[in-house]
Structure formats: C-alpha cells, structure tokens
C-alpha cells in the first residue's frame, strides 16, 4: 500500500510542477499511479529532487529499497 501512496504522491508532484492545479493533479494521478512500475516512480522521485511532501503537504513515503 505504501508503494501506491508513494506513486500517487510522486506523480501528483510531477503534475503540479508541470503547471497543473493540485486538485486536478490528484484526480489525474489517480488514473494511472497504480500502473507505474516502481522503477519509474523511483526515477521520477529522483528527477524531482527527492521531495518529502506532496503538493497537499502529505509525506511521500521513502523508497522500499
């Protein structure tokens, strides 16, 4: 479950940084966060500078590895 929460919050962060409203980013992330391989989520997390919080201020769980 932590990996799904992590994927959602990482994708949400990416979308907000691309200029999408935080609430809309949450909706959009929900459409495909479950389908992303953990490797992709890890790379996005690195690309974003390892954010600790999502745009809504919730913690982004640490990578499982």
Silhouette: globular
Give the averaged pLDDT, no decimals. Answer: 94
Low-confidence stretches: none
Rg estimate, integer Å: 10 Å
Cα distance spanning the termini: 15 Å
| Total number of domains | 1
User: What is the β-strand count?
Assistant: 0
Please give the count of helices. Answer: 3
**SSE sequence, one letter per element:** HHH
Structural class computed from helices and strand pairing: mainly alpha
Instruction: Report strand %.
Output: under 5%
Structure overview:
The protein has one domain (2-47). 57% of the residues lie in helices and 0% in strands. The chain has three helices and no strands. Helix 1 (2-17) crosses helix 2. The chain is globular, with a radius of gyration of 10 Å. It starts with a helix and ends in an 18-residue tail after the last helix. The relative contact order is 0.26. The model has no long low-confidence stretch (mean pLDDT 94).
Task: Furnish the topology, listing elements before pairings.
Elements: H1 2-17, H2 22-32, H3 38-47
Helix pairs in contact: 1-2, 1-3
